[in-house]
Amino acid sequence: MSLFYKMGTAAMRMLPAERAHNTTIKALKAGLGPVANKTASPELITQVGGLTLPNPVGLAAGFDKNCQVPDAMLAAGFGFVECGTVTPRPQVGNPKPRLFRLTEDKAVINRMGFNNGGLDEFKTRLEKRHGKSGIVGANLGANKDSDDRVEDYVKGLKALWGMSDYFTINISSPNTPGLRDLQNENAMDELLGRIAEARAELTGSTPSYPVFLKVAPDVDMSEIERIVEQARMYGMNAIIVSNTTIARPDSLQSAHRGETGGLSGAPLFETSTAVLREFSAAAQGKIDLIGVGGISNGQQAYAKIRAGAKAVQLYSALVFKGPGLVTDINRDLKARLKADGFNNISEAVGQG
């Protein structure tokens, strides 16, 4: 990472967390983001959920809620970018302050509450980039005051069909009351069943866009096999493991450790990777997995891959290291593959 971007990242940390994030988005829109070497690395090309990615390191949802800078983040070196979470109607989210840096813990707590500009705004931006290269996905959510949250996901799928390279059904956020209840067996049957029906109508005789399911790290371990089977039964192409946690490890040092919301960053790495291993054992290679939670370097990205992930996503580490981090991670992944005698990242999946 260049000195310029290191200085910029340090300057952003002087601002309140949410203002720093908004300033970063403005800078990226103005073309001030890093640009990675575009030379392809064959050893990093991977397939996940029906997508072919130039490298396995993706940007997690939450960074670009309104699909304002996907191409800037692709230019920074991400193999794929997930925008959102987007809800059918615009919503302001929870009262501020709602985003907190836990600097001593290299962590973040957020209770944003799906603040976003809604589907119409999101769709307009996707339409403007239609035909450009690079994998950009849409993370779909439900409005807080919705009378039919399942229908909100169907609306999102229908509105963005043909514009997004893939879709993520996000039922894992702790900041919309009751949303995680959709992970329960009967609720998931209804949700995934209606998604499958809508998808069949939209697809017709043409290939379908991939649809992923995003789950929480706080899932009951005894439920993992059931979730995997339901995801497979309803045709999900991959499971994203996982979102932020409501747990608060005793190791947290920051004065913000007691804030409500979802915890992400370094303290989530071990827990989320353990959950990923359980999902990998249950999946037995029959559905692809994407590993998320606490990744801030190549070693951790590689650990997720060896735990069973075909690709990974990160976000919180950018708060502390800036968007140039992805280049460092991909460089490190190549070195680790070579050291372990793997010709391609796919050979390392589930090998640790």
> How would you sum up the global shape?
globular
Q: Averaging pLDDT over every residue, what do you get?
A: 95
Name of the CATH superfamily: Aldolase class I
How is the CATH topology named?
TIM Barrel
Per CATH, the class reads Alpha Beta
Rg on CA atoms, Å: 19 Å
Count of DSSP-assigned helices:
11
Overall number of strands: 13
What does the model show?
With 352 residues, the protein is of the alpha/beta class. It has a single domain (3-348), classed as TIM Barrel, CATH 3.20.20.70. The chain is 36% helix and 16% strand. The protein has eleven helices and 13 strands. The protein has an eight-stranded parallel β-barrel with strand order 3-4-7-8-9-10-12-13, surrounded by four helices. Strands 5-6-11 form a three-stranded antiparallel beta sheet. Helix 5 links the parallel strand 7 and strand 8 (166-170). Helix 7 (224-233) crosses helix 8 (269-283). The longest helix is centred in the middle third of the chain and has 19 residues, at 185-203. The radius of gyration is 19 Å and the shape is globular. The mean pLDDT is 95.
Topology readout:
Layout: H1 3-12, H2 17-29, E1 46-48, E2 51-53, E3 57-59, H3 70-75, E4 80-86, E5 99-102, E6 107-110, H4 119-128, E7 136-140, H5 149-160, E8 166-170, H6 185-203, E9 211-215, H7 224-233, E10 238-241, E11 262-265, H8 269-283, E12 288-292, H9 298-306, E13 311-314, H10 316-321, H11 325-339
Helix pairs in contact: 5-6, 6-7, 7-8, 9-11
Question: What would the keywords be for this entry?
Answer:
single chain; 352 residues; alpha/beta; TIM Barrel; three-stranded antiparallel sheet; 36% helix; globular
